[in-house]
User: Which sequence fits this backbone?
């Protein structure tokens, strides 16, 4: 039986990666995916508003993992209360959506590109919502 794979861009923020938060596992469950290969960067859904080299490096990472792992889905996951991209909750949704659209266009990926946002309740408690798919 083959496993379904996603490549996901997520924040480096350690709070998201606490074992009890299970953010990667929950994203996999939400999307019906078995495994997610992660690209971790601070402020992932603000990368398109940083100097262009940041975005180009991200595209290189996606292209490498798309070629190596043949994912069925790509994920852009922003999160509220992000030090790397300190914007309002509404802007997080919009920016995750914009980055998902840009990544789809630049990589030429033919599968779905999902924009997700982890919503902040406390450092140990996060919600997870889908904000767009392309
Ligand atoms: Zn962050």
Assistant:
């Amino acid at each position: 039986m083959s496993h379904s794979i996603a490549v996901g861009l997520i924040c480096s923020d350690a709070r998201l990666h606490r074992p009890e938060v299970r953010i990667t596992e929950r994203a996999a469950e939400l999307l019906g995916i078995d495994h997610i290969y992660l690209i971790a960067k601070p402020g992932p859904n603000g990368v398109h508003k940083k100097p262009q080299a940041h975005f180009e490096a991200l595209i290189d990472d996606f292209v490498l993992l798309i070629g190596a792992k043949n994912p069925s889905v790509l994920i852009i996951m922003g999160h509220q209360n992000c030090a790397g991209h300190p914007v309002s909750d509404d802007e997080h949704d919009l920016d995750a959506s914009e980055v998902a659209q840009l990544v789809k266009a630049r990589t030429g990926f033919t599968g779905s590109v999902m924009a997700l946002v982890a919503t902040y309740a406390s450092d140990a408690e996060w919600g997870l919502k889908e904000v767009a798919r392309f």
